[in-house]
């Protein structure tokens, strides 16, 4: 791809250049296309595609179901990427993808996010394609799986039917199945959506999406690693006056603060924690503090989620050690605490081992946690049963109509919206940006309370 | 492992222990291990040769096409006294392993993955940050701990275990072993007693060792039914008009009979108000639940023996739920959900998901119980009794050693 300031080539070259897909509609991004791109388009195309990816990210964290996601992707694509001329659309599609590879190849976290969103985008666009187009794409991904011969199909027909019914589909609707090593379809195995026998998964045509997407993901993942090497080795330096500043600005613009270095956070001290919990902690963290005070213990998942939150909120390492020791020593003694737990806390602050300064978990990560026996971490709006959640919200002072609204959001799996509503109810202000990080909840809360204090102060001053 | 404990003759400790341990190690089937008559004990009697032979998977330099570096890239972790952890240890042969263990006397040995390069040199590679030091092979492992079932067993809690609740481990072995073979096509599966309150599973097929983290997570999720932390009341949810063939088979072949014939009585699941309530809480229809509650309140005064109470109430519950009278959503699978809640295996997901997770080596002695972490035959797992597992206490060890020493001294002096 050559980036120029002058007039651009016509986009028809794109399809022919190996970046296009079978029917020309859904590219697989195997190779960078040989065309020229204007510098302005470089940035604009990327921004439009980022709008699509960000929209997908929001949809996922709101727990949207597959049918809803399909609709969302279709709308996002139409709004931001579609052009009257399909050749132009394809042009923009390919260019924006490759530009974003440059932007998002540079750290592990960026790569993970980009990979996840692009894969999701591809998955739903694939679902929206026609069967012929889908079949051509399968071929392009070199999935050499032959359809199950009739005799074999008859032998396992009942089991296949049973699987279909177990996932809420009608029995005996699908007749084309593929026999695939189970390693190739991990998500289908994980959700028990396939029949397994002797190491093979029996995959329905409709599930083939999963196969294709896994390959797609794998290809992009490898490509990102390569791009990162190239970037670090040559491109970054070569382009330091032209593309590099744009690339760096793009990734910062679309990644929310990660709270790994509390910027405007005031240091919080030990004695403040209980008070702050009541006034400014989100429910997930309040709950863990309560349980910690009650049991003088938290299991690993809880220690990570809560400990990193406290760090992001401004609790210093020495105070953190004192805090956890004060609780744990009541159950296991301070000597055992120092031996068995202090190391992990220091590790979280980047003072041990690989010395990574760990980042507090975002809502998306917390919601997708899998708390098990004895665990108290996770997102209460997702992981609590209804009764427990109502009780917990009551304790926060949330009741009546607001409580019902929140429970309604929960029923529809809009966990972050539920938390946002909780914030709005308890603080008496609206929160337009929505909550997507516990530390964001905390700092927004503190802002509101400080503003209230200032208002009160200035009122009392003017009153005198 | 249903042998009776042989009486230990203090004059012949060495010989007796030898026999017991030989019997122990002679029982394994279909696993990649071949243990000979070597006895085991951490430090002095550990089966170094065979242990190493297992972990070589044929890369032992004796034939062309083998990878000489393979075994030296396997991570071991030794835990010493005073909580000193020696991670990223590696050994090129059994002799090196043996001398390291004898010199350092660890009370626990953990096995990690086979890395891309020698783990003991990992510092050099970590700097380059280019994913040069990564795990490349690792057995597929599972860890099942009885304390994860504390909410459904009344006989013991925490680290204690008895034959009544050990049934839960037997169930887990049966279900997982069958599925690993029939569904996933694995053949080389080693089940090991963890030494105190659980079991470990090592799947050693080449295909299993090469699985990625994502694939391991997928298998763990396939097995996962029990979900939810402390605050979700109902932790087993079997949605859908029918069960997936794997779950259906598990239910019909194993779970239902263990629940009906053994656990119901052993654990006295309906014998008290509290225990009944716990089961009633799993019924999504509150009317049905209170109807049953009312029935059982009434029956309390009749002089039924403890046996009758559990079986009777369970029958009543099943009849009510399966009568089809109540059309509430979620009611149709309720009986199965209750059975699954009380019996279905609960895996530690984190252990299975990551290639670099360390797991205690088989054939060690458990540091707290002194029991040997020996193999369990999945075909005979009903007979396994954790209390009957031989132990080697420090005194027995020392006295066996001293007896040998005295013998040799005597023969030298004469």
Task: Write out key terms for the chains shown.
heterodimer; A: 464 residues; mainly alpha; Transcription Elongation Factor S-II, Chain A; 3 domains; three-stranded antiparallel β-sheet; two-stranded parallel sheet; B: 414 residues; alpha+beta; DNA primase, PRIM domain; four-stranded antiparallel β-sheet; 11% strand; elongated
- The helicity of chain A comes to 55-70%
Count of β-strands of chain B: 9
Helicity range of the residues of chain B? 40-55%
How much of the sequence lies in strands of chain A comes to under 5%
Q: How would you describe the oligomerization state of the chains in this entry? A: heterodimer
How confident is the prediction overall: mean pLDDT of chain B? 79
- Please tell me how large the radius of gyration of chain A is: 26 Å
Along the chain, the helix and strand elements of chain B come as HHEEHEHEEHEEHHHHHHHHEEH
The structure class of chain B reads alpha+beta
- For the termini of chain B, the CA-CA separation is 43 Å
Shape-level CATH architecture of the largest domain in chain B: Alpha-Beta Complex
**Number of helices, where a helix is a run of at least 4 consecutive DSSP H or I residues of chain A:** 22
Biggest sheet architecture of chain B: 5 strands, antiparallel
Proportion of residues in β-strands of chain B:
5-15%
Shape of chain A: globular
Overall residue-averaged pLDDT value of chain A: 84
């Amino acid at each position: 791809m050559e980036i120029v300031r002058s007039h651009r080539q016509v986009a028809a070259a794109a399809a022919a250049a190996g970046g296009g897909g079978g029917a020309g509609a859904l590219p697989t991004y195997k190779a960078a296309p040989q065309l020229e791109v204007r510098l302005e388009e470089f940035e604009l195309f990327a921004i439009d595609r980022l709008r699509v990816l960000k929209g997908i990210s929001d949809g996922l964290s709101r727990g949207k179901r597959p049918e809803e996601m399909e609709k969302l992707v279709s709308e996002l694509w139409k709004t931001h990427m579609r052009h009257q001329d399909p050749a132009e659309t394809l042009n923009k599609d390919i260019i924006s993808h490759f530009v974003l590879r440059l932007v998002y190849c540079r750290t592990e976290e960026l790569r993970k996010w980009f990979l996840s969103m692009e894969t999701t985008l591809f998955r739903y666009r694939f679902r929206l394609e026609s069967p012929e187009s889908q079949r051509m794409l399968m071929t392009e991904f070199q999935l050499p799986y032959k359809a199950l011969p009739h005799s074999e199909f008859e032998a396992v027909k009942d089991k296949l039917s049973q699987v279909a019914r177990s996932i809420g589909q009608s029995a005996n609707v699908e007749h084309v199945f593929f026999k695939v090593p189970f390693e190739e379809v991990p998500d289908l195995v994980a959700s028990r959506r396939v029949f397994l026998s002797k190491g093979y998964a029996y995959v329905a045509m409709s599930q083939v999406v999963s196969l294709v997407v896994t390959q797609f993901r794998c290809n992009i993942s490898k490509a990102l690693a390569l791009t990162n090497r190239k970037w670090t080795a040559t491109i970054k330096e070569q382009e330091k006056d032209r593309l590099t500043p744009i690339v760096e600005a793009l990734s910062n613009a679309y990644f929310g603060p990660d709270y790994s270095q509390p910027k405007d956070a005031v240091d919080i001290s030990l004695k403040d924690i209980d008070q702050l919990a009541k006034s400014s902690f989100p429910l997930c963290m309040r709950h863990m503090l309560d349980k910690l005070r009650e049991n003088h213990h938290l299991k690993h998942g809880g220690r990570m989620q809560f400990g990193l939150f406290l760090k992001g909120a401004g609790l210093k390492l020495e105070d953190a050690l004192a805090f956890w020791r004060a609780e744990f020593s009541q159950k296991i003694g301070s000597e055992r605490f120092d031996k068995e737990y202090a190391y992990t806390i220091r590790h979280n602050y980047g003072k041990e081992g690989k010395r990574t300064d760990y980042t507090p978990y975002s809502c998306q990560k917390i919601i997708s946690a899998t708390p098990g026996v004895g665990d108290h971490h996770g997102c209460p709006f997702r992981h609590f049963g209804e009764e427990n959640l109502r009780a917990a919200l009551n304790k926060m002072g949330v009741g009546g109509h607001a409580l019902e609204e929140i429970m309604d959001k929960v029923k529809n799996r809009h966990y972050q919206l539920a938390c946002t509503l909780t914030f709005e109810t308890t603080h008496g202000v609206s929160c337009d940006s929505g909550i997507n990080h516990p530390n964001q909840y905390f700092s927004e809360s503190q802002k509101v309370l400080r503003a209230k204090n200032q208002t009160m102060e200035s009122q009392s001053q003017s009153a005198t | 492992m249903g042998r009776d404990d042989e009486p230990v003759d203090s004059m012949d400790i060495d010989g007796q222990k030898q026999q017991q341990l030989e019997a122990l190690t002679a029982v394994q089937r279909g696993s990649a291990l071949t243990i000979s008559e070597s006895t085991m004990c951490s430090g002095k009697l550990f089966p170094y040769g065979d242990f190493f032979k297992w972990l070589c998977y044929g890369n032992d330099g004796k034939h062309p096409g083998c990878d000489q570096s393979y075994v030296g890239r396997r991570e071991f972790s030794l835990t010493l006294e005073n909580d000193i952890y020696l991670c990223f240890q590696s050994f090129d042969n059994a002799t090196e392993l043996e001398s390291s263990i004898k010199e350092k006397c660890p009370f626990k040995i953990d096995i990690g993955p086979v890395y891309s390069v020698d783990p003991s040199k990992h510092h050099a590679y970590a700097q380059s940050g280019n994913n040069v030091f990564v795990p490349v092979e690792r057995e597929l492992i599972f860890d099942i701990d009885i304390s994860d079932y504390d909410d459904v067993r009344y006989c013991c809690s925490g680290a204690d275990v008895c034959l009544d609740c050990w049934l839960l481990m037997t169930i887990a072995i049966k279900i997982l072993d069958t599925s690993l073979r029939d569904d996933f096509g694995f053949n080389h599966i080693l089940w090991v007693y963890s030494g105190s309150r659980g079991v470990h599973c090592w799947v050693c097929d080449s295909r299993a060792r090469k699985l990625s983290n994502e694939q391991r997570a997928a298998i763990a999720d396939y097995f996962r039914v029990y979900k939810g932390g402390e605050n979700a009341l109902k932790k087993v949810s079997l949605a859908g008009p029918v069960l997936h063939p794997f779950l259906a088979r598990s239910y019909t072949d194993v779970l239902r009979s263990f629940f009906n014939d053994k656990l119901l009585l052993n654990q006295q699941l309906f014998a008290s108000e509290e225990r009944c309530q716990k089961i009633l809480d799993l019924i999504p229809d509150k009317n049905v639940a209170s109807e049953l509650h009312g029935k059982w309140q009434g029956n309390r005064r009749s002089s039924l023996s403890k046996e009758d109470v559990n079986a009777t109430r369970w029958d009543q519950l099943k009849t009510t739920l399966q009568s089809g009278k109540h059309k509430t959503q979620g009611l149709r699978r309720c009986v199965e959900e209750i059975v699954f809640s009380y019996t279905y295996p609960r895996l530690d997901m984190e252990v299975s998901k990551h290639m670099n997770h360390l797991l205690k080596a088989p054939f060690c002695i458990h540091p707290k119980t002194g029991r040997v972490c020996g193999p369990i035959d999945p075909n005979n797992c009903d007979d396994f009794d954790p209390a009957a597992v031989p132990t080697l206490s420090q005194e027995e060890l020392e006295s066996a050693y001293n007896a040998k020493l005295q013998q040799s001294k005597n023969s030298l002096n004469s």
